[in-house]
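Bench log, entry 3. Co-assembly request; chain sequences pasted below exactly as received.
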Amino acid sequence: MIKKIIDAIDERIGIRADIKEQLTEYMVPSRMNFWYSLGAVLLAIFTIEIMTGILLLINYIPSVKEAFDSVALITGTIPFGWLVRRVHVLGSYLFIITLFLHMISVLFMGAYKKPREIQWFLGCMIFGAVMFTCLAGYLLPWSQLSYWATTVGTNFPSSIPVIGGFMVHLVRGGELVSQSTLSRFFTLHVVVIPLLLIFLIGAHIFAMHRTGVSNPPWTTDTTKIPFYPKFFLGDLTIIYIFLAILFFFVFFFPQIGFPPDTLVRANPLLTPEHIKPEWYFLGSYQVIKIIPNKFLGISLQGVIVALIFLLPVIDRCEERRVWKRPIFASCVIFAVVAYVVLTIWGSYS
Amino acid sequence: MKKTLLLISAMLLLFAASGMAKEQPYPICIKCHVKQAADWKQSIHYENGTYCNNCHGGNPNDAATAMSPDFGFIGVPKKKDIPALCGKCHVGVEKNYLMSVHNIAKNENGPECATCHTYHKQKKANISLFSRDLCGKCHEYDRAERIKNAMIATENIVGDLDSRIDDLNSNGYNIAGIKSIFFSVRNRFHSLTHVVDVKLIEGETSNIQDNLSKVDKDVRVLEKRESSRKKFGVVFIGLLLAGALAVALYRRVL
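Structure output for the full assembly:
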């Protein structure tokens, strides 16, 4: 019966040929390793985030009066609501870590170079959109931490001359973080950015198909083999392992996603002792703290982001082997170490 | 390569050093009242976000109005006014203290709140406050020891429940209801201490323990739920890893 339906569809739109051409018999380098599976892992976690997000949306109420209670209802009363929320929160952490690893591997393997510049640009945009959707999602539970971290986070643009005040007002929808801010962030988090991400990820995969997967720079063997079954199963193995890591934290260390201030309802009149952004913004937060001028701190980070984004334009040398690019490798290592140090420093400062 | 590494290390050090001197004190009072601030930072008040102005009044954000009566600044309270000052928040404690011999003796240099709890370094109250060193400063320890013995079993239950509720809280459980009841019972128990009456404490203990056992029952339900979740987690993670292994093995034999 199912075969008949598939045959009927195939007869009309030729689905089998497309699957063969674009997926099962899509040719990839035979020497790919673990690092090449991170894209598939990201796709799997993104799917989980969308699914858990939809489930949370059923009971979440985007109102300053009811948001906190609706989240408490999800975690305390709705069957498996606790699991869905933990997976959504900790899944976002794993998504960001995997995205970091994916980008670092691309840097070390020189996979951003011609003809894959467009993939790099799209990847950077995906990274930016993910960070922004995480920031927006952070406010939704309307807890003490989410309220005050958003207050601090949305205040950063105020240091920009002339338009700073206007930008803060635009982001918050008023002078203070309020219902307007919650409504804006809710719309961004559940509709605008996910749709943008689906488009960007689709475009990223499309570009990858057009250019082909980059050959590992450590080998001269350019043999290609079909994606299915060897690499499909390889990706599946890595996805299973990443999911095991995710669920290990979900079941045994959920508190890393829920510090004490996330369990207290937002109180605009009571500032908590330590207001800090989520861990992935701690590096950025610390840079702003240690540079005396806030505008300078933001500008410096803007320049760094621009340099990273424009990397394929700046670095036009064709050499991809990392051991032949010691200065570039040192810069990447320095950037990674600096980010880790600043993040740890930010969490203790 | 060595030069690059040296350069990286130097830049990291420079980066680290640039932020060392930049720490913003808060509130403004602590710029001058350094000793009091150092004590306050070790207190339960500090942990719970109770600032200088909550007791002393004044504007903690502005030096010019920090000690302005317009902002309710009262300065250092007189000894006789301290129980009423603390009683603004610790209502039941004040009520019980006023019934005690400590209060009667207050005008003859007897103890007020800060005598036992200190002025700025108040810790979360527990049974260890009853000590020969502290109580023995004013009178024989034997009466205090009898009160301590009457309270110790209940205090152990309170301490145990407190840490278990904290564990549940840090695991993301909504324990607002449990915490509210526990907070109320614990406060009733601790405020009872302030009457310094052994018979009253013994009489109230069984009632307080009954209430604590109700809290314990609710906590156990959540602990059991957490334990089931962890067991489910072990099975689920095991299945994921088994899946990874099976796929990897299948891939190898292809």
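Chain B has twelve helices and no strands. The first helix of chain B runs from residue 2 to 20.
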